[in-house]
Amino acid sequence: DYQHPLDRDNTRLLKSIPAVEDLTKAVLSPSLESALELEHTSTSVLVSERQLPKYYAMIQECAAVLGIPQPRLYIKQNPSPNAFTLAIRGKKPIIVAHTSLVELLTDDEFKAVLGHEMGHLACDHGVWLSLAQVLGIGVEFPGTPYFIRRQFEEQLLRWSRSAEYTCDRAALICVREPRIVASALMKLAGGSPKLAAELSVEAFLDQARAYEDSLASASPLNQFLDNSRTNALTHPLPVARAKEIDQWSRSTEFAAIRDRLVSSAPASSN
């Protein structure tokens, strides 16, 4: 009930591409999925009740809020702050988070990222997400005509960008505070542990509004160039995501979800 309209529309368009099921099977072979799983599970630390229990509690809570089975969470040594989800057919999904992401974000912000990643699982993004990831590392479609392959790749990128808006909503549902989600996006755009104390969410949202205003008044050529740049991205621009989640946090749709979560929460005992 929180899926972004662009996500819904682009998923439908993706499924309507001719031979899409054959393309999926050709790329996502069981051996490739197994190799991806082994790569991450053999070089990372599995979070559990005995291993990094604070983060295990976070993933438990987000899974319960979003109403999905709890995925596996791995922490991987990597200097680039990032997290991603692997949906392996027939197996428990995996979320991998880099150590630099843990160091960059507060606990609440990291919980928002976990909620974002679990949004992919809650909204059945698994197959398309895996396809986007394997294409991103250079895997190609064997024996597929160029025009079909190109159409599929372009639509997959459009879907990927729109799916991120849905998952930002899942993040907000998990933490319930839009400033936390916007702050995580801000830090991923240009933050560091040293800069964290001086970063301002309000200034970042003002920056997002200024960007939208300048784009609206730009020349047709500049708008075309901006679209060409963003069309090659897997994620929307950070300022666009921050503005979008700030707006949705004020919607009646989110208010209804928040009220339902509050009413279903167990009463605290004194």
Task: Produce a short descriptive summary.
With 270 residues, the protein is mainly alpha-helical.
Model description:
The chain is built from 13 helices and four strands. The protein has helices at residues 5-15, 20-27, 30-41, 53-66, 99-104, 107-122, 126-136, 146-175, 178-190, 201-216, 220-231, 238-248, 252-264; strands spanning 45-46, 72-76, 83-86, 94-98. It has a four-stranded mixed β-sheet with strand order 1-2-4-3, sandwiched between helices. The chain starts with a helix and ends in a 6-residue tail after the last helix. 34% of the residues are buried.
SSE layout and pairings?
Layout: H1 5-15, H2 20-27, H3 30-41, E1 45-46, H4 53-66, E2 72-76, E3 83-86, E4 94-98, H5 99-104, H6 107-122, H7 126-136, H8 146-175, H9 178-190, H10 201-216, H11 220-231, H12 238-248, H13 252-264
Parallel strand pairs: 2-4
Antiparallel strand pairs: 1-2, 3-4
Helix pairs in contact: 1-8, 4-6, 6-8, 6-9, 7-8, 8-12, 9-12, 10-12
Low confidence ranges: none
Order of helices and strands: HHHEHEEEHHHHHHHHH
Helix percent band: 55-70%
Question: Which structural class do you get from the secondary structure elements?
Answer: mainly alpha
Give the N-terminus to C-terminus distance in angstroms.
34 Å
Major β-sheet profile: 4 strands, mixed
Mean pLDDT, rounded to whole units?
A: 87
Number of strands: 4
The outline comes out as globular
Strands in their spatial order, largest beta sheet: 1-2-4-3
What percentage of the residues does DSSP assign to strands (E)?
A: 5-15%
Number of helices: 13
| Rg over C-alpha atoms, rounded to the nearest angstrom | 19 Å
